[in-house]
Design the sequence.
């Protein structure tokens, strides 16, 4: 019985020890776990793109007999379609090459016998040029559906776009047709002899709702710098691009019927290689240019210095060069990825990040290639009547180390810039995810706050531990500790809605206070020394000096406020902010870095104060006693004996405060305007990494690039604070060892 | 003589500087600045927060252009150049004037008066109304009072009785709604597991549900009818400009005549507002009314958090202090603890979102609630994930406090217990932990204070501006861990920075801030007091 109890308590003891040890190790596990889990979300940003052959389809003999004008595919790699020169779509199953459906284009223009060419525009729209010069347009809907027995069935439909059709005309080599918003449609014909003709088909509605159709046609009559080698038109029908065989790139504004203007005539290839292919990148701003030498670049209009508002086509991004001539460029219908076809391979490059994503090598030279509407599948037809389908996995093409931390030349910008802009109203908007402005904002906020907090906190800590009477110290220390518990949302709210408008009314008070408070302090010190040493008053004030300082500080700030009113009226014409703007061209934001310095500084003061005060107080008393006994004054003892000994502890206090300031979210969120700008001006706001996460993450779609970039910034914050905290802790442990106390 | 005195003075001055007395004063000034800042913060919050509920006088200004303005003077300032004073007047009547505040120059004012018969109405919508009562239209009510004001009060009492009856209908409706919803989920689950197999059960449940729905719509009609009936009882008011307004009695939340109130009446009104603040639901997208859901959400989240963080923190501290030997492992645990304390709170939020919400929550959804997908149940922010995230965030606070209190227990006590044959575990549970309880309490309270004020991670993992239901109610299973909740700290951020009319919402934010600040300051004061007492108990002076 007795043994039983002993055994039981022993086994209890062992069990408890096991549990408690596990609990201790859990702390390490959770820290590592946090890092692992957030890194796991961020890492796919840097995963390479991949492509694998999903299927190879041998075309049935019936189809190989005719001329193939276009191919297409769908998202699931289950089907392909082929458009032949009779205007018939053949939908094939990828698995076995069997014909799933054959659909004839709904409208064949009168007099047309066969189709000559098919142009793919945007997502699933095909413009057919017939042998008599007429144009019709169809939309193809094609998808695969997974059935219960894990087989796929295909759905297909071909519908006609009635608004986009043009009547017959002759002598055409190549044609483009586009719908023009609120106007009608436009066709651009490349005629024999390198002539280009633009025909607008206008639909005007009068007040009664009657449609009136009219047609106007004009030919481009400027002499071309060389022979035409490639032509492209943007999807809205506003600009016409042409490349020549001597490497020139031309651009015409064709948006106004009858007013065709040549707006650009630039050299696209320095080595005068022929431009072999042109394509508009999604969004219609950039044009991709491929030449006979294999170089691939993108261009968009940029403001030229010294020419006012004029914009000229400029080479912006150079992408991975192809081997031999660039035969075709296929822009992705989903993002700014470009697929370029050369003699041996199909390359995928992202325009903005300039990342070379992947290259696939088809068995035979590619004749036709196409992407599925969402860009998940690539289909290419070789000259051996075989069609190959690739499943593309391109996780985050727009993200690279360069776009996150380097300057990027975005569309519409006049120079490469660090920019953060995660969303906008329109669909083809490209998110700009540079972390540089955010890191800059974090550093700026932290530095401002530390400049304000460190001197105050350290001096106050020195005073509290060395000069203050022990009884008072017992009261003041808890006050500061309670200060540390004030929620940051409270500080942020007061900073944003109370302090910011207050300082906004009288900015000068802040600056005058910085001068006046120390000045007034000097005056006080001057009078202070009049108090005779060892007099009753001196004895009474010893250890309580700071109480006398409180009215001095308040008086100083009040005087600064009074003076600032006077100064503003007399020196700055009554409005300092206006003066700043007109004289120094400095914009004043109400929620600026001064507010941040004060608010964030206020939040970290108690942290620095408490740790520093502990460190200073932990210096053994016998050191102090020895110094005082040797005749040193209390200041000399504190400054030359105590402080140097406590320096590692004080330093670690500053480090920990620094770590807090970096990660503080609510204060920065509420007390700044959250503008991601790179400006050192004290009068401007900022956006920090942490506030950025708080602002953006509720809106970020799960697993999108933005979501992962926000996790990446959390990883950065984690690693940064981890280093700071670890160093601080290591120093503190050494400091404790030195003085043998905990 | 004169030269001598100058010399002595100069020498003394030099000595004064050399001994460093001025620097001591400078350090004192630094402390003074910190204290002034803290006091300012508390002072600003108190003065703005405490005054908000006090019934302020309604001042009527007759202006030189012949018009008049009625309202509460909220601010006055002086133009530094022209020296003209101007008043900021809260004129209320947002639906009439389109704005809450108005600046009036002193020189435009002819007379200033405080008419005793002005009434202040707190309304369910459009903010306060300031004006004069003209009469009461009350069909079907027998009003015996003489003056319109008394009539109105009598009518309000009668209407309140009628409203209580409708509240009962509303409760019934909400019960029906709840059971219909749970039936819907059951049907959904059955349908998911096999439509044919469970066809009989589905039809049965659907029939029950339809019955409940029919009952619900019946009650709803009854409710709307009564509501409309009561809504016809109105009172007529005119404002300062002379415009008249017909306001339904159901719209009126509170009625005051601040210019005609005695000091004690004002105190009563003040207390009534405090009660409303603590116990009522918010109105007008949180800018008016009470804070009850936010207080409840905060308290419940904090309590749930301590369920997780307290055991974990105490065990980790025991490991560090009692079991670990000084070595690499211990140092690593210490570094880990410091990093847990030092990692920015927003990182915890991000972790909570990635791991708890999408990770664990997503798995729970696909395992247990596949029929509800893609509508998430646990795969979205909620009170459970929030408290887990904050538990991780506040564990270091518990660890540090517990460790400190364990460290302050003299070694002799441990050795005595072990010498008497107790095992380590027995020593721990019978001797050390009871002795360390004040320290553990300190840690617990400090962690609760921290959690109550933390907002950034909560914004990501489950706090909302307005939660339709509390995370705890009388419907099975009582605790709804998947529900989103309201939080005092987030309330401050949301109302102060996201509401469309920040200027009008500011006083409310100050009140919330004051409440939060009071909670945090009281909690940490208690914790620090406990800790200091614990410290003093066992320490023996060394010098």
Sequence:
């Amino acid at each position: 019985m007795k043994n039983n109890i002993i055994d039981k308590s022993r086994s209890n003891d062992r069990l408890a020890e096991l549990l408690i040890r596990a609990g201790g190790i859990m702390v390490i596990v959770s820290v590592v776990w946090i890092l692992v889990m957030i890194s796991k979300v961020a890492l796919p940003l840097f995963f390479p793109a991949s492509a694998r052959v999903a299927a190879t389809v041998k075309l049935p003999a019936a189809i190989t007999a005719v001329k193939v004008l276009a191919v297409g595919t769908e998202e699931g790699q289950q089907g392909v379609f082929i458009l032949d020169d009779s205007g018939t779509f053949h939908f094939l199953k990828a698995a076995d090459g069997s014909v799933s459906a054959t659909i004839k284009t709904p409208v064949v223009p009168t007099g047309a016998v066969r189709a000559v060419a098919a142009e793919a525009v945007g997502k699933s729209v095909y413009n057919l040029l017939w042998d008599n010069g007429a144009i019709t347009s169809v939309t193809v809907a094609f998808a695969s559906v997974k059935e219960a027995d894990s087989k796929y069935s295909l759905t297909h439909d071909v519908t006609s776009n009635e608004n986009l059709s043009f009547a017959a005309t002759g002598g055409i080599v190549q044609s483009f047709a586009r719908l023009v918003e609120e106007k009608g449609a436009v066709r651009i014909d490349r005629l024999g002899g390198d002539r280009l003709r633009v025909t607008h088909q206008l639909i005007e509605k009068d007040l009664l709702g009657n449609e009136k159709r009219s047609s106007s046609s004009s030919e481009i009559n400027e002499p071309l710098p060389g022979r035409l080698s490639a032509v492209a038109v943007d999807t809205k029908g506003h600009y016409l691009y042409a490349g020549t065989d001597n490497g020139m790139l031309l651009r015409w504004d064709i948006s106004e019927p009858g007013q065709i203007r040549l707006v650009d005539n630039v050299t696209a290839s320095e080595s005068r290689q022929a431009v072999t292919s042109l394509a508009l990148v999604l969004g219609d701003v950039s044009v991709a240019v491929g030449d006979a030498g294999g170089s691939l670049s993108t261009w968009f209009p940029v403001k030229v210095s010294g020419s006012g508002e004029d914009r000229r086509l400029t080479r912006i991004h150079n992408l991975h060069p192809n081997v031999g001539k660039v035969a075709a460029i296929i822009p992705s219908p989903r993002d700014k990825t470009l697929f370029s076809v050369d003699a041996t391979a199909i390359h995928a490059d992202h325009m903005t990040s300039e990342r070379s994503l992947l290259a696939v090598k088809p068995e035979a030279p590619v004749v036709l290639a196409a992407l599925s509407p969402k860009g998940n599948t690539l289909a290419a037809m070789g000259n051996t009547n075989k069609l190959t389908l690739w499943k593309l996995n391109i996780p985050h093409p727009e993200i690279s180390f360069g776009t996150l931390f380097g300057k990027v030349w975005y569309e519409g910008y006049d120079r490469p810039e660090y920019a953060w802009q995660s969303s906008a109203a329109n669909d083809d908007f490209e998110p700009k995810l540079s972390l540089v402005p955010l890191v800059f904002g974090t550093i700026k906020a932290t530095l401002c706050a530390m400049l304000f907090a460190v001197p105050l906190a350290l001096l106050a800590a020195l005073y509290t531990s060395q000069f203050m009477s022990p009884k008072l110290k017992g009261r003041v220390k808890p006050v500061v500790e309670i200060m540390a518990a004030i929620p940051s949302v409270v500080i942020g709210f007061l900073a944003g809605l109370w302090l910011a408008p207050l300082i906004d009314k009288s900015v000068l008070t802040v600056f005058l206070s910085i001068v006046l408070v120390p000045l007034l302090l000097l005056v006080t010190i001057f009078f202070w020394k009049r108090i005779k040493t060892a007099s009753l008053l001196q004895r009474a004030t010893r250890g309580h000096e700071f109480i006398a300082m409180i009215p001095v500080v308040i008086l100083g700030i009040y005087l600064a406020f009074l003076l600032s009113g006077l100064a503003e009226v007399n020196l700055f014409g009554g409005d300092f902010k206006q003066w700043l703007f007109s004289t120094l061209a400095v914009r004043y934001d109400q929620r600026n870095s001064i507010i941040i310095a004060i608010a964030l500084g206020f939040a970290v003061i108690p942290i620095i104060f408490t740790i520093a005060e502990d460190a200073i107080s932990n210096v053994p008393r016998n050191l102090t006693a020895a110094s005082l006994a040797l005749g040193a004054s209390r200041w000399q003892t504190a400054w030359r004996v105590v402080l140097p000994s406590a320096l590692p502890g004080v330093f670690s206090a500053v480090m920990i405060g620094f770590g807090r300031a970096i990660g503080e979210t609510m204060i920065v969120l509420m007390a700044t305007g959250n503008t991601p700008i790179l400006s050192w001006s004290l009068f401007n706001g900022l956006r920090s990494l942490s506030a950025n996460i708080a602002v953006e993450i509720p809106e970020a779609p799960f697993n999108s690039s933005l979501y992962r970039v926000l996790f990446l910034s959390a990883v950065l914050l984690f690693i940064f604070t981890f280093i700071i905290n670890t160093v601080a802790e290591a120093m503190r442990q050494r400091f404790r060892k030195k003085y043998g106390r905990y | 003589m004169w030269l001598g005195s100058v010399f002595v003075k100069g020498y003394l001055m030099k000595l004064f500087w050399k001994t460093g007395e001025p620097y001591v004063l400078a350090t004192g000034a630094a402390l003074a600045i910190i204290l002034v800042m803290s006091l300012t913060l508390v002072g600003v919050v108190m003065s703005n927060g405490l005054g908000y509920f006090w019934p302020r006088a309604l001042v009527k200004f007759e202006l030189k252009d012949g018009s008049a303005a009625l309202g509460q003077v909220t601010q006055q300032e002086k133009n530094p150049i022209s020296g003209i004073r101007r008043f900021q007047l809260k004129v209320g009547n947002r639906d009439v004037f389109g704005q809450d505040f108005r600046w009036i120059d002193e020189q435009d004012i002819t007379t200033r008066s405080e008419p005793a018969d002005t009434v202040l109405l707190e309304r369910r919508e459009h903010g306060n109304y300031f004006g004069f009562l003209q009469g009461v239209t009350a069909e079907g009510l027998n009003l015996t009072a003489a003056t319109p004001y008394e009539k109105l009060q009598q009518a309000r009492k009668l209407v309140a009785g009628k409203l209580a009856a409708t509240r009962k209908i509303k409760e019934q409706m909400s019960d029906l709604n709840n059971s219909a919803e749970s039936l819907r989920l059951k049907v959904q689950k059955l349908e998911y597991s096999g439509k044919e197999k469970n066809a009989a059960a589905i039809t049965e449940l659907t029939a029950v549900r339809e019955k409940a729905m029919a009952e619900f719509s019946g009650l709803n009609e009854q409710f709307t009818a009564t509501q409309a009936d009561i809504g016809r009882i109105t009172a007529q008011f005119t404002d300062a400009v002379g415009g008249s307004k017909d306001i339904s009695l159901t719209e009126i939340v509170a009625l005051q005549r601040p210019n005609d109130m005695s000091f004690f009446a004002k105190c009563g009104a003040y207390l009534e507002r405090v009660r409303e603040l603590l116990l009522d639901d918010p109105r007008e997208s949180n800018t008016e009314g009470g804070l009850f859901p936010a207080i409840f959400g905060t308290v419940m989240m904090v309590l749930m958090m301590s369920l997780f963080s307290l055991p974990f923190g105490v065990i980790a501290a025991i490991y560090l202090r009692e079991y670990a030997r000084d070595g690499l492992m211990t140092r690593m645990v210490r570094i880990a603890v410091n990093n847990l304390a030092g990692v920015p709170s927003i990182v915890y939020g991000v972790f909570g979102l990635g791991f708890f919400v999408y990770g664990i929550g997503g798995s729970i959804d696909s395992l247990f609630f596949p029929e509800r997908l893609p509508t998430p149940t646990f795969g979205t922010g909620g009170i459970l994930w929030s408290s887990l995230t904050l538990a991780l965030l506040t564990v270091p606070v518990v660890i540090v406090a517990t460790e400190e209190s364990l460290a302050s227990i003299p070694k002799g006590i441990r050795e005595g217990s072990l010498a008497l044959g107790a095992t380590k575990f027995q020593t721990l549970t019978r001797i050390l932990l009871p002795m360390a309880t004040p320290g553990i309490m300190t840690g617990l309270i400090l962690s609760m204070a921290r959690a109550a004020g933390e907002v950034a991670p909560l914004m990501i993992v489950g706090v909302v501006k307005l939660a339709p239901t509390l995370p705890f109610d009388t419907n099975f299973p009582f605790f709804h861990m998947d529900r989103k909740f309201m939080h005092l700290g987030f309330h401050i951020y949301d109302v102060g920075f996201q509401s469309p009319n920040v200027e009008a919402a500011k006083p409310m934010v100050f009140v919330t801030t004051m409440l939060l600040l009071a909670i945090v300051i009281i909690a940490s004061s208690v914790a620090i007091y406990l800790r200091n007492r614990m410290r003093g108990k066992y320490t023996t002076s060394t010098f």
In short: The mean pLDDT of chain B is 84. The two ends of chain B are 49 Å apart (CA to CA). Chain B touches chain A through 106 residues (CB under 8 Å). The first strand of chain B starts at residue 59 and ends at 63.
